[in-house]
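Task 17 of the worksheet. Students: predict the tertiary structure of the chain below and write it out as structure tokens. Keep your answer in the requested format; marks are given for formatting as well as content.
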Amino acid sequence: MAATVTACVCTSLAAVPARASAPAASTPSADEIIAVLRAEGLDIAAVPSSTMVTFYAGLPRDSAGLATAARAASTPGSPTYRQFRSLRDVGRDFGATSRQVAALHRAAASVGLRSRVDTSRLFTRLSGTAQAWQVQLGGPLVVLGTDASATILPLKDLIEPSGRQQTHVPKALRGLVRDVIPSQTLAAPPSTPAPVVPAEPLTPAPQPLRPLPTATGTPGDSCLTPDQLTNTYTPAQLHTAYGTAALRADGMTGRGTRMTVLSLGQAFSPQLVAYAAQCFGYRAPRIQTVAADGVQGRLPVLGLGSEDESLLDLQVVAPILTGASSVRIVETPEAANLVESMVNGMATALNADGRGTASPDVVSVSYGECLDVTGATDAALGALGTFAVAEDLLASAALVGTSVFVASGDAGAAGCTRGEADATAQEVSWPSSSRWVTAVGGTLISLTADNHRSAEQVWNNAPWFGPNAGGAGGGPALGPRPWYQPRATPADRRIVPDLVAHASDLVGWPLAVPTESGGATIVPIGGTSASTPFVAANFALIAARERAAGRPPLGFVNPWLYALGARGQGFYDIAGSNNQTNPQTPCCVATRGFDQASGLGAPRFVDIAARVPSAAQGRS
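Model answer:
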């Protein structure tokens, strides 16, 4: 699972020379600050005054009403269960009012800015020249990064401590926007394409503590060599074990489904997706690339760096949704922090037709970030502009009928504390910790000769490689325990993951990657970035069946899934293993029933597909 980091560069300005005509204690100029930062190796430059810049701003909205409606539409037994609205209607009912929008347009124009309100009416895009923004924000703008990926933001945000960057509302817009999110990230083809770096196959530990797992079962059609087959499962093997093959045998191929993969800061190669399909003998759906704000150039934008993340997402999804006319991938620049990228990507994904009248059935997200808000109260979190907008967008997804699946991470229970020797508390990454998403953790599955499950345990590489990797889980999360989740710890907080599926790299998923000679080969790869699109695509199969029968899609599935789990239905219960990857954070052990290491367990998709509650009735 890829992660992003905040682009705050807190540097000492003691070395910045004072201007010759000014006293020694005078404040250094913007040019002097930029010079110091460049000398420290930061790729930074002033933004020309005529450059057009777009920042997001959160709008006044009814967040509480939105959450109440989303909860009712997602909970079996509710009078409005699976009674979804269009994104345009959600914006009308819970977003900024028409009067507020009109007043904002006038006020923005009065200071040289143009306002383009998102269909969700949760935020607006404010555009203007760098000169206009300098006046409104009280300082110059700078650009960080190269032509392949660059971020524009206020210079003062780079040199002020984190936490002092929340208030950016120009005087003319006060009362009309909650805050301005002062960051614009661009993604364009680099002037020099990134070199092709061949992926490295798994290398066993010199003296593993126990024999490394090897693939079992019958691989089916594939182009893998005997050596590759020992540490790689084929799609056919995993599809049989989890019931995907049985769903397809029942005619569920994904025809008519609307599935979207969010890609943040990465691209993909259509040729490698086609190579994997040829290798394993399936028809890959057409990949439809959609640009989020800031993506420039011909789609897909290639050469942004490693493409493994998006390639893995698509190569996991493609052999499941062979009947789909297309699978959408939203290319989103990797912003200064993941929350901003999620606002950009989710807003683009939910407004699939550009008119706010069609949204995807399923969205898969393989990214996460450790937010530096440890100890923050729920009220304080809600006041953080970007975070509040993102959470409201995820609630909007539930209300428009979109199921959102998010990777929980690959650092085991250590989560955000891995690598910190003195860490003693758990922390899980966002957005998997949002109450509006289904967090997917990881397992290591073992198969019988006919590709059925012989055993499944929580993914944890520690017995072979030490604190190397494992399926993330535990807590506490940022928000309180949601209404659908049982108590698994003394803390009244959200627990991650909700469910798990195969994510181990010891016997990995197959990934087609480029070779130095310009060809392609298959390498094993793991991570919750594999289990997440796998789970998401299977729910897309079920949503497609519902749509074909004239019924609404599934929407936010957690309340339904937890009701299934409470009845002992829908899941293979995992017990007896753990995901502890940091001795200082002794958590978590998979026990009978719901737990912090494996959530509800591994999905039995045939059982789940047979128990979809009726819309507005809630009876399975």
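Marker's comment: The chain is about 25% helix and 15% strand. The first helix runs from residue 30 to 39.
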